[in-house]
Specification:
The protein has 284 residues and is an alpha/beta fold. The protein is 38% helix and 11% strand. α1 packs across α9 and α4 runs parallel beside α6.
Length: 284
């Protein structure tokens, strides 16, 4: 996709939002090329029911992987994703629950090991965001909830997964352009994404002797259910217009970064962040 476009006005009242309710539906990359780079690998993708997570799950299946998708409660989206993964040759395990809950993280990894018997790739992608025009509008409950989903869940699930990961395994964390550029009305969300960058770099050097690579992807504006679930109709209608390319990205345009980092093509990369963001230069 190269032409400029922005979404039509729409809004959803439920976080993290439903892909089934979006117009137009995000492109999950069903027709993207593949090269069998993840054959025989078992993978976990959190937030795998929709948006970037769905596109990653499909891309992994097209590359030969089996995929477990973790999601909150968007059962229709999850079933659609499961069907797409299986259609493209991968086994798919769909596990509902809150990644911010320690017991759920433990149970989810146990279920994956029982189903697949091994684990080579973990994608920590689940997240939530809430608009607040002033810092005073972010109460302690929202602050804790955003960090629990976006950061605590990443720590806890990774902690449960690591004992099952062997040399050659890969962990990929979803951060955001907001970690590098900030965002005036997503301050707690941006703070979690900055924490994810620091976590990625720190974990990478911690597990390098175990032969496990840890990297991150920092998308710019992407058309996912989080957008209509976070912003009002007028803001959705302008979403992505300020990017250098004049449009939001599609999940299918972000997923190849995850495939690369999960595969042996990235065997000499760890502690790094990729930036599929529509052309915005970032540093750090």
């Amino acid at each position: 996709m190269t032409s400029e476009w922005t979404p039509p006005a729409q809004h959803q009242d439920h976080q993290p939002g439903s892909e089934a309710a979006m117009t137009p539906r995000p492109d999950p990359g069903l027709d993207r090329p593949s090269a069998d780079r993840l054959r025989g690998r078992a993978t976990i993708v959190t937030g795998g029911d929709s948006g970037i997570g769905r596109a990653v799950a499909i891309a992994f299946a097209r590359e030969g992987a089996d995929v477990a998708i973790l999601y909150l409660d968007e059962h229709q989206d999850a079933e659609e994703t499961r069907a797409m993964v299986e259609e493209h040759g991968g086994r798919c395990l769909a596990i509902p629950g809150d990644v911010g809950d320690e017991a759920h993280c433990r149970d989810a990894v146990r279920a994956v090991m029982e189903e697949f018997g091994h684990l080579e790739v973990l994608v920590n992608n689940a997240g939530e965001q809430h608009v607040a025009k002033a810092l005073e509008d972010i109460d302690s409950a929202q602050l804790e909830r955003t960090f629990r989903t976006n950061v605590f869940g990443m720590f806890m699930l990774t902690r449960e997964a690591l004992p099952h990961m062997r040399p050659g395994a890969a962990i990929i964390n979803s951060t955001s352009i907001t970690a590098f550029k900030g965002h005036p009305v997503l301050m707690d969300y941006a703070a979690t994404k900055g924490a994810i960058v620091a976590f990625t770099r720190s974990l990478a050097v911690n597990v390098v002797d175990r032969g496990i690579r840890v990297n991150a992807v920092a998308p710019g504006p992407v058309w996912t259910p989080l957008i209509p679930a976070s912003f009002d109709e007028d803001q959705v209608e302008d979403f992505g217009a300020s990017s250098p390319m004049g449009r939001p990205g599609e999940p299918a345009e972000i997923a190849p970064s995850y495939v690369f980092l999960a595969s042996e093509d990235a065997s000499f990369m760890s502690g790094q962040v990729l930036h599929p963001n529509g052309g915005t230069p970032v540093g750090g």
